[in-house]
Amino acid sequence: MAAPRAAADRIRRLRADIERHNRLYYVEDAPEISDAAFDELFGELQSLESAHPELVTPDSPTQRVGSAPAQEFAEVHHRVPMLSLANAFSDDDVAAFDRRCREGLGVECVDYACELKFDGLAVSLAYERGRLVQGATRGDGSTGEDVTSNLRTIPAIPLSLPGPAPAWLEVRGEVLMRRKDFEALNQRQAAAGDKAFVNPRNAAAGSLRQLDPRLSAQRKLSFFAYGIGAHEGFALPATHGELMDALAALGFPVARERRVVRGEAGLLAFYRDIGGRREALPVDIDGVVYKVNRFADQEALGFVARAPRWAVAHKFPAEEATTRLLDIGVQVGRTGAITPVARLEPVFVGGTTVSNATLHNEDEVRRKDVWRGDEVVVRRAGDVIPEVARVATPGPRTDGDYFRLPSVCPECGSAVVRLEDEAVARCTGGLVCPAQRKASLLHFASRRAMDIEGLGDKLVDQLVDAGLVHTPADLYALTVEQLAGLERMAEKSAQNVHGSIAKSRETTLARFLYGLGIRQVGEVTAKDLAAHFGTLEALMAADAEALQGAPDVGPVVAESIARFFAEPHNREVIARLRQALVRWPESAPRQAAVAGRFAGKIVVLTGTLATLTREDAKERLEAAGARVTGSVSKKTDVVIAGAEAGSKLDRAAELGVAVIDEATMLAWLGETN
Ligand code: IVH
Predict the structure, then answer these.
(1) Ligand 1 center to residue 137 CA distance, Å?
(2) Beta strands 602-606 and 627-629, pairing class
(3) CA distances from 188 to 36, 185, 196, 200 (A)
(4) Beta bridge partners of 425
(5) By alpha-carbon position, which residue is closest to atom 23 of ligand 1?
(6) Greatest Cα pair distance in the chain
(7) pTM more than 0.70
(8) Pairing between β-strand 307-308 and β-strand 303-304 as defined by DSSP bridges
(9) Ligand 1 atom closest to the CA of 122, numbered from 1
(10) Which stretch of DSSP H or E encloses residue 128?
(11) Each residue's pLDDT tens digit, 199-225
């Protein structure tokens, strides 16, 4: 049965009205009707469409939420990469940008399109013959995620384009949340007892990446267009300014705050104008963007790395606010770094309420001379963690107000150590500290360490969160049943992981040492230590001085190793790993070659050798019992100088170290063999 003409007309009218009110709300920031009146129109359209299902079209506003929750997002390859922008922070940076453009184009003055720098999430919307067919996030610029279903729920994004449509058009822009929608969302979160979002950007990002488009739909996201990607059959105008007008005519939200200006003076005037009106804008921006207006000029200027030479983002300075510093606590990071954290009387800065701010490290606390109870200036820029910038007014400053770094880790009670040359203090309980647990397990299992296949991020998260694994030693006590009991873990995969854990018991001392995650002990040092000491017991028994006998181990590395093994918690885990039958072939410590001129000598290679590569020379010297190091010191026995040897030769002369040439080196090596 054909639908009555009246119904069809009313439906058409309602759709047009609803789209218009969406525009007024999301694009013009000038709604004409209340939310309730809007809901009424929407309800009427829904009931008419359910009475006449044959009149439902995919681009009806009721059809924005269509699909069921996804399992994961598919990948989308961007035909034209989504690039980033270089930043300018000062007037001088802007002058330099203008100069580069003028010189690059060989002209006296350049026209620029100025627009807002939205603080949201970049997306690309693909229209095939005028219908929205795909929407993707920026991702790494080449490959993003397919979030079409979620983007369809954003009222500001047209589902279809009017008029004669291009065969293909990708429109690029930013998904964001208007400030008032953000505040309303946070009020709803609070009323429901859920966690508040930190800022509109995070709220927008979190909402867009919901696997269930119905959740995205509830979040009132907005969109602003600022460019295009791949296109076919699209009449590209000559300038960016005209392109923005064309996109607006197609129904895309384009910010009203845009202007084409001449030269540097025009850019700076736009910046000051927008800066002065920033607070009154409906959305958060973190600066403005300047683009060379003519596309032909853009093409002539081209790109450097991942950013165009023809555009720049001129950032606003970080926002600051003053508040009272209630306390200074410390936070233990994933790698054991101990960071002083300011607990603040909550203060509104940079678009959010801040109650914690970083103080970076102990030296920074001293340099800024920050005490508990002071009035401090808090600074926040974009997505950066808020920091205490400086003291505004000192507080009473009694003894207890002075900050001292704790001597033990607040998470695990292990000793806190700050190595010479390092700004950061760290917890030494790498193997036991709950704050470091996940990172240390992942490192232990990694390919170059114990090489436990299948023990990745997600599994480690589950094992730790379920309380099954506290330290690497616990891995060896896991049963197939325990593994199979975890979410999304099939019996077969459980058996595989169990198998790879068992297999990792047969290892080498070097891998084991590297896997312990001792600060300053990378793969190479672990190998050197294993070769030098031969057994774990010998290494653990060595004091800082003995440790420095190993190749390339200086005082800082030695102290780090000594502190690690001095920590009783760590010794306990190591003992348990040994009990779990983790083992490796024991070897005698590397013996210095007994005979020959290089036996036991510390040698430095410098300059270009005529017959051997640096690597070959090193290998042959080591085979002859020498230790080849990188820099000349008092301990150096011989420097081997090739052509164009530089400062190392001077240093050798200064210290009176013997210098020989390559021919002599070869002769000496010959004597050995
Ligand atoms: S144009 C080739 N215009 O900034 C240049 N980007 O750092 C491509 N952004 O990922 C970007 N407002 O998310 C452009 N008016 C604007 C923008 C803008 C915000 C974001 C965008 C991009 C990032 C680049």
Answers:
(1) 13
(2) parallel
(3) 17, 5, 9, 14
(4) 338
(5) 84
(6) 107
(7) no
(8) antiparallel
(9) 13
(10) strand 121-128
(11) 888 889 888 888 787 777 788 899 999
